[in-house]
Amino acid sequence: MLVVAIALVAADGRVLLAQRPRGSRHGGLWEFPGGKVESGERPEAALVREVREELGIEIDPRDLAPVGFASEAEAKRHLLLLLYRADRWVGEPTALVADRLAWVAVEAMPALAMPPADRPLVEALARPLDRP
Ligand SMILES: Nc1nc2c([nH]c(=O)n2[C@@H]2O[C@H](COP(=O)(O)OP(=O)(O)OP(=O)(O)O)[C@@H](O)[C@H]2O)c(=O)[nH]1
């Protein structure tokens, strides 16, 4: 299963996380907005579609930069999760699907309940910020 996700980075460095609806798989956990890539779909096009559906914002695919990926064995399938980042978008993110949205400092993410695949991605996201 190929999943794409986005770290929307605000001017103050905080990143948008979405809380998965309770009752769904991983319900209540905080994750990067995104979703499954459909058959024959370009990953970047899937991400543009997902943020439109889930957040009501528009992103230019040229503003997507790769951060890293996670490869995680799940019970019945294997998850390959590609994380991109973007500093520019059009519109105000709205919780159209998620229970809640929150702008979170990367340093605060390790304390949040997130899916296991997200842990290495949070580290990858923090890495460039560590540099002086
Ligand atoms: N968008 C997103 N999905 C993630 C992240 N981490 C992670 O493990 N996932 C998993 O990747 C899949 C995302 O696909 P989706 O959001 O379209 O899944 P879904 O609601 O249809 O649920 P389903 O997998 O039970 O069909 C989910 O299984 C989700 O738990 C993340 O940071 N962002």
From TrEMBL:
Domain Nudix hydrolase: 1-127
UniProt keyword NADP present: no
EC code(s) of this entry: 3.6.1.55
GO biological process, alphabetically ordered: DNA repair; DNA replication
Origin superkingdom: Bacteria
InterPro entries cross-referenced by the UniProt entry: MutT-like, Nudix_hydrolase, NUDIX_hydrolase-like_dom_sf, NUDIX_hydrolase_CS, NUDIX_hydrolase_dom
Enzyme class, spelled out: hydrolase
The reaction(s) this protein catalyses: 8-oxo-GTP + H2O = 8-oxo-GMP + diphosphate + H(+); 8-oxo-dGTP + H2O = 8-oxo-dGMP + diphosphate + H(+)
Cofactor(s) the protein needs: Mg(2+)
The keyword DNA damage is annotated on this UniProt entry: yes
Keywords from the named record: DNA damage, DNA repair, DNA replication, Hydrolase, Magnesium, Metal-binding, Mutator protein
CDD domains the record matches: NUDIX_MutT_NudA_like (cd03425)
Pfam family, one: NUDIX
GO MF assignments: 8-oxo-7,8-dihydrodeoxyguanosine triphosphate pyrophosphatase activity; 8-oxo-7,8-dihydroguanosine triphosphate pyrophosphatase activity; 8-oxo-dGDP phosphatase activity; 8-oxo-GDP phosphatase activity; metal ion binding
Family: Belongs to the Nudix hydrolase family.
Name recorded for this polypeptide: 8-oxo-dGTP diphosphatase
